[in-house]
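Hello K.,

You asked for the raw outputs rather than the summary table, so here they are, unedited. I folded two proteins back to back in the same session to keep the settings identical. This is the first:
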Amino acid sequence: MCLREIWLPLAVAAMLLLGCKDSPKNTKVTETVVTTAADTTVVQENTKINPEPEEAFKLTEDNAIDFFFNYQQDLKADKVKITTRFGSFTVELYDNVPYHKANFIYLTRKGYFKDTQFHRVVKDFIIQGGNSDDAITGKKRSDIGRYLLPPDTRKGHRHHRGTISMPSSEIDNPHMLASPFEFFIVVTDPGSYHLDGDFTPFGRVVEGMDVVDKINSQPIGKGDWPVQNTYIQDAVVVE
């Protein structure tokens, strides 16, 4: 037998044995792209990287009006129930003051008003809510965003008793832009009409005005802040 006849079967067997060995495991997740040009093969490996998480949406001076314009388009709810240690009251929001209505519903659904306080009580005039000296309130505001709302005072609504309205911001504010996180309710009978034209009425108390009067009757200290904190224990949209 010639040498060539012995070598050929051995070479074939060796190739088969090599082909049966386990391939090494690759623990790196990669995407391989192979491109061929003439006799040259180029292999590129692109490691898959998890995308950066998207930043949470925040309202700003630039996007707030557009956001609330779109938000109120399909908004059916128009009532919010507010609960305190004195009981609950319900406010009905006006459809023709759309940005303020949408803002109040949006903040309620975001859970903003829960655990804020009626931090200002002026006897036989108003109760004002939506603020607090607790750190959690500042954190909520920061998470929601920084923005103001333009006044909307020409819809025929007046500051009758039971009207819920929005105070202007404490910042230098010649245009009376409204602080969106706070609200006040008129308790004066029949009303506080000197406020008309300067502040935006956007709803009225339709149930539980006696609870509003109880809050207004509480002892107050410096800066019209109640001596005993009056928290909003819950605020929910009446669907």
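The second followed immediately with the same parameters:
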Amino acid sequence: MTFDQVPDRRSKPSWEGVLPGRPAPFFLEDGDGERAKLFDSVVTVLLSADETEGQFGVFTTRQPKGDLIVAHSHEDVHEIFYVVEGAARVFLEHPDGRQESRLLRPGDFGYVPAGIVHSYRTEGEYNKILGVSTGGFERFFQALGDLTEERDVPTTPFIPSPDRMQQAFTRYRNIPAPGQQWEGA
């Protein structure tokens, strides 16, 4: 399946028609879905709030070994991390201020409830992570990233502008935690 890039993203989404957009059975082959390039990753939405009546979204990220992402929290978004290939270290801070980090390898699972400050870093040479979030949040990666036909780690990174980052963080209620220090990071 190919995408037609739309110069004005405010018109119709360029990934329109890839997913049903309503609760209906469907299947995707490996790499299919709504793909966006973001930094050195390809994020693929497999299931959106549109197909689950707002309940949850499912996506994958494919990325190389990387840097720690910006620490953040979400007021009303729960997230899971399931490592399919490679490894990822998830950092989080409990409500009592206690920090925890866990290295997740293939088959390992992590859950971060809404309101918890967290971050992660991919540690394998090649990583594929399955994410599930509260419905609607899966679109954050598309708002921040750029449409791509690439199915794997991008050949050239996409760095969003500061304005685009601010808009995406605001729209999807990502609350950055600048200056957050993680033990062992």
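Helices lie at 140-144, 162-171.

Happy to rerun anything if the numbers look odd on your end.

Regards,
P.
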